[in-house]
């Protein structure tokens, strides 16, 4: 069988994991996924971590750890992954999330279905996080810089103060930068709103959310050199318009609506995992 015959016509099953216990967050994630122009052969399901084991909002290192334990401790979920119910998984928490590698390891355990074929047992679950996928997508969207000019940049707008250091270090590690040299000419940095994930759609007045998000966005734009802004929280789904409005206030409509990419990390994650699954199939 040729490579094309092996790959062509297969359906793709993706699981998006919301590692916090917020159903509202999962609903927002579903809305983003439904807006994607995915082929009919691609099925996307959403999993919400169990409460109270997982927090309703992941806002610090303790939240990351608790949510990871809650997901890994869900034996029904792990069994489904071990039995090849999905080809790929997206971790929908904008963080350096240990679930990205721990879930792949857990899924590599022996499935419980005795009748699985040898081919099925060899399947490798493809896992990525929305953090990692958004970086790769942002880099691919940066326009080339004219000779002799400073490079165009990408940056992250996110929630609370914890994430500034966490994500800055995460970007450097993901891109293979040394601990001694964290400088990156194309990275405009992480800019926070001071809110938590749940505040974007409940608890905080919309006008205050807009004000804070605009302030963070204008800092991220770095004098108009930033051409890709990542919404660094799954809870920011649907807030692209505020970011573009902030850009328009500073640099005009042409830049805000004709040049600036506002990247939803969940959307990037689903699109990235679909490509990863296709490439993984070429190895079989």
List its salient traits.
284 residues, alpha/beta, Rossmann fold, four-stranded parallel β-sheet, 8 strands, 15% strand, Iso_Racemase_Enz_sf, Hydantoin_racemase-like, Asp/Glu/hydantoin racemase
Walk me through the topology.
Blueprint: H1 3-7, E1 12-18, H2 23-34, E2 42-48, H3 61-72, H4 75-82, E3 88-91, H5 99-107, H6 118-122, E4 126-129, H7 130-141, E5 153-158, H8 162-174, E6 187-192, H9 206-220, E7 226-231, H10 240-251, H11 253-258, E8 261-264, H12 265-281
Parallel strand pairs: 1-2, 1-3, 3-4, 5-6, 5-7, 7-8
Word description of this protein:
With 284 residues, the chain is α/β, with parallel strands linked by helices. It folds into 2 domains: 143 residues, Rossmann fold, CATH 3.40.50.12500; 132 residues, Rossmann fold (3-Layer(aba) Sandwich), CATH 3.40.50. The protein has 12 helices and 8 strands. Helix 2 links the parallel strand 1 and strand 2. It starts with a helix and ends with a helix. About 2% of the residues have low confidence.
């Amino acid at each position: 069988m040729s490579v094309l015959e092996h790959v062509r016509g297969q359906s793709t099953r993706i699981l998006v994991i919301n590692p916090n216990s917020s159903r509202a967050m999962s609903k927002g994630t579903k809305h983003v996924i439904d807006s994607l122009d995915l082929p009919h052969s691609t099925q996307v399901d959403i999993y919400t971590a169990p409460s109270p084991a997982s927090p309703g909002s992941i806002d610090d290192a303790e939240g990351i750890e608790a949510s990871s334990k809650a997901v890994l401790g869900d034996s029904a979920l792990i069994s489904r992954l071990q039995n090849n119910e999905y080809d790929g998984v997206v971790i929908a928490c904008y963080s350096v999330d240990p679930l990205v590698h721990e879930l792949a390891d857990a899924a590599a355990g022996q499935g419980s279905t005795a009748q699985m074929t040898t081919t099925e047992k060899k399947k490798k679950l493809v896992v990525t996080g929305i953090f990692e996928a958004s970086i790769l997508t942002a880099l691919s969207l940066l326009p080339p810089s004219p000779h002799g000019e400073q490079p165009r940049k990408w940056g992250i707008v996110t929630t609370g103060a914890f994430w500034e250091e966490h994500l800055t270090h995460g970007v450097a590690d993901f891109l293979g930068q040394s601990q001694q040299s964290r400088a990156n000419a194309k990275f405009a940095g992480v800019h926070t709103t001071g809110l938590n994930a749940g505040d974007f759609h409940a608890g905080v007045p919309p006008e205050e959310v807009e004000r804070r998000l605009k302030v963070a966005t204008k800092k991220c734009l770095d004098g108009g050199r930033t051409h890709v802004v990542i919404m660094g929280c799954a809870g920011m789904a649907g807030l692209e318009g505020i970011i573009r409005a902030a850009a328009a206030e500073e640099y005009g409509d042409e830049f805000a609506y004709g040049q600036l990419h506002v990247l939803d990390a969940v959307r990037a994650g689903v699109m990235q995992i679909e490509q990863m699954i296709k490439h993984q199939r070429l190895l079989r």
